[in-house]
User: Which sequence fits this backbone?
């Protein structure tokens, strides 16, 4: 079983570190630009008292980061080229992975001999546990050494593991933006609309839950309902008129309604 | 306990009829424009052998529709004025309710002395059971008789019941379009994107589930993540470039990303 060190101490790094530690993987070290963040993650691993995690050493220096078989870079997309450029010569022979959806694997080529990508298809927040056994990991490796480490690690915690090229991973990340970030913005727009009219937005929660559950039973195409799907232009016009004061919501309403009507020839 | 007859035999009528029958409410009759639909709903009530539902008589004539204390009109929005105009003189003294989000209560004024609205905040599909105990019913009544019947019926099956004017109900329906119909269109767009690139879209399901569950723990504002929320214009531009061939998805991507960046000053 390879040993790991984390570069980054945010949501993704934290959830991955704990998931691996829970499975007995030794987390050797945690790097963060700020010592406080690195220490917080290291201490949360110590506090959880996993069999092999007590060694995790925090640092704010890449050069001082503990030796490990695999380095997982879970940092902001923009930080990856800088970390690759500053990667210590002493760690060139190790496997270096990043977890970013929209960054090509080759960003790591200047840093290491064996590199790759471990992209988990999920949204991570600080609080709440993540059930990795339901998540697909999309992986890409520069060579057999990287692919072997990826396979070993991914199958430990993920429910499913699939190879995916950097080019295709961009579409995966883009799809996740629609299915998660844009969906959440629809929730936010609905919440604001109700709050402005004195209605408690939490009445939407059963509708939100059912809408998400429906696609587990059928396809989004089959599940589509509403005025635009029915081609009910009277209601669409009434709704648009209600939104004249709320510029962004009005634009979104028209754009998506038009798209639904076109998609279903409604 | 008031007796009920249903006008309409679609998803909403079917789920309401079964929910009321399960609670011992007598369903006297079912009207549909087509006899086959009325018969199908009546027979499904008979087949379920609820204590008091065996009397439900199907018909395709409003004049022949069984006598009941309360008539629930669960039909397409456009059909409501026609049903109100054709409402039998013999049933004028009964309570007549509709279930439409975007139609004012007064559409029923020509038909009956006591009328109102029973709007359940949920999306209904043919298959699957509906847990009404989690759903809020928004009600409006023309007078004390209608309000009394609404309160009696709503508290039987709904988890929560709130009064709401026709004017405000429009915003509720509009919010539901964002939180359900538009959300589902985001799912559809994400699914299409992955299918076009040979990736199984079902890998999105854990992400979809987590995104919906997150708003049960926090607000959509707190839950918002993604490139637009971070103001990461590099990624937004890369994504937009990936979508040049898919016109609607490109427009939606830009519209919603712009809206997110504006909302959070990102």
Assistant:
């Amino acid at each position: 079983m390879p040993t790991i060190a984390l570069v980054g101490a945010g949501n993704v790094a934290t959830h991955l570190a704990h998931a691996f530690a829970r499975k007995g993987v030794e987390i050797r070290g945690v790097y963060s630009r700020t010592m406080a963040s690195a220490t917080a993650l290291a201490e949360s691993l110590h506090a959880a008292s996993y069999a092999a995690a007590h060694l995790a050493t925090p640092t704010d220096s890449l050069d001082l980061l503990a030796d490990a078989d695999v380095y997982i870079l879970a940092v902001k997309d923009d930080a990856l080229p800088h970390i690759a450029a500053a990667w210590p010569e002493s760690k060139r022979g190790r496997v270096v992975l990043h977890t970013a959806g929209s960054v090509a694997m080759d960003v790591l080529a200047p840093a290491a001999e064996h590199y790759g990508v471990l992209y988990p298809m999920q949204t991570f927040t600080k609080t709440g546990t993540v059930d990795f056994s339901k998540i697909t990991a999309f992986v890409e490796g520069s060579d057999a050494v990287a692919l072997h480490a990826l396979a070993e690690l991914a199958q430990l915690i993920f429910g499913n593991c699939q190879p995916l090229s950097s080019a295709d991973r961009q579409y995966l990340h883009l799809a996740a933006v629609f299915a998660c970030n844009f969906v959440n913005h629809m929730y936010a727009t609905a919440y604001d609309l109700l709050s402005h009219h004195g209605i408690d937005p939490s009445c939407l929660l059963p509708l939100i839950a059912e809408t998400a559950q429906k696609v587990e039973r059928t396809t989004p195409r089959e599940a589509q309902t509403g005025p635009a799907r029915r081609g009910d232009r009277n209601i669409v016009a009434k709704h648009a008129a209600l939104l004249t004061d709320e510029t962004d919501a009005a634009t979104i309403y028209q754009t998506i309604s038009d798209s639904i009507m076109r998609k279903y020839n409604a």
Observations:
- Chain B touches chain A through 94 residues (CB under 8 Å).
- The two ends of chain B are 56 Å apart (CA to CA).
